[in-house]
Amino acid sequence: MTRIVAGAAGGRTLQVPRSGTRPTSERVREALFSRLEHLGVVRDAEVLDLYAGSGALGLEAASRGAARVILVESARPAAGLIRRNAASLELDVEVVPARVETYLAGPPRPSHLALLDPPYDLDDAALARVLERLAAGWLHPDAVVVVERSRRSPEPAWPAGLSLLDERTYGDTRAWFAEPDAPA
């Protein structure tokens, strides 16, 4: 069973797709959002959840007071399930049933927080291209980008304009936190 950890919908259950996604565990989400709240990038933030899967990360952000949450998920059944979860939790989010690359090719909507939990089989070069696109107008100057992957995965190749802020390992999960470079 997957639940929202804290906030307005804290403790309430999420339905998850039967296959094709691996929802971030409650323990990892609790630690991840503790770090993000310490950084001050959740409450009233504009959040972009890429590779949303079950929607657990974006819905957690909405429950914790994010002003706007956009969840991008290419699998239509998963996107439909995210919509149903949001409705049952009474969380106002936008679900975009599209490939991340397609969505980021559109006009930028700058975010304070970008959450990326790509499929483990997404290769490093594809992730680098997504991060490059994200750094090209999709982030506020004080934004934080989080990439969650297997702890055996190498650090993402940060594009020009993004630098590593922190790295945390939670069991079998590793999260990298990055931020836009300060203007020269």
From TrEMBL:
<dbReference type="Pfam" id="PF03602">
    <property type="entry name" value="Cons_hypoth95"/>
</dbReference>
<keyword id="KW-0808">Transferase</keyword>
<dbReference type="InterPro" id="IPR004398">
    <property type="entry name" value="RNA_MeTrfase_RsmD"/>
</dbReference>
<dbReference type="GO" id="GO:0052913">
    <property type="term" value="F:16S rRNA (guanine(966)-N(2))-methyltransferase activity"/>
</dbReference>
<protein>
    <submittedName>
        <fullName>16S rRNA (Guanine(966)-N(2))-methyltransferase RsmD</fullName>
        <ecNumber>2.1.1.171</ecNumber>
    </submittedName>
</protein>
<keyword id="KW-0489">Methyltransferase</keyword>
<dbReference type="InterPro" id="IPR029063">
    <property type="entry name" value="SAM-dependent_MTases_sf"/>
</dbReference>
